Amino acid sequence: VQNLNFFMLQWNLIWKFSQWMRRDIKSGLRRKFSAWEAFKKSGWNAQKKIVYNRAKKEAEKLVKEGVKSYEESIAGSAKSNPKEFYRYVNNKSGNGFREVIKALKNSDGVVSNDPKEIADFKEYKNIKSERRYFLEKTDYEKTTLGAN
């Protein structure tokens, strides 16, 4: 039980200092947490589950909107404040613990979410794009048919 409390403390510290965290998002997350506690204490009552699911969806929506509006404000002020923009990009593209960049928009206005293009943009040369980790369906059929 102590480890769970430690995890919750660490999770709260991560979210507490996020740049996109606003008052309405915090209150939505609190509503979600209190709905979860009520659901747990009720002995997993079906009505409480419905209330919790609504609170969870609302909190997810608030977080998504908050992150999106923060990213739009960062992108809008990229010319006037490039340090803040690059700090955010570097924070997103750090080690595996941090979040990842999912899409980039080039100067022509074309949005790309191809990992290879993102890696090329960031000038990472050690990407092994030629290696396939999964067999295609036809490759699998060839190997099984050829074995028999």
UniProtKB/TrEMBL annotation:
This is Uncharacterized protein.
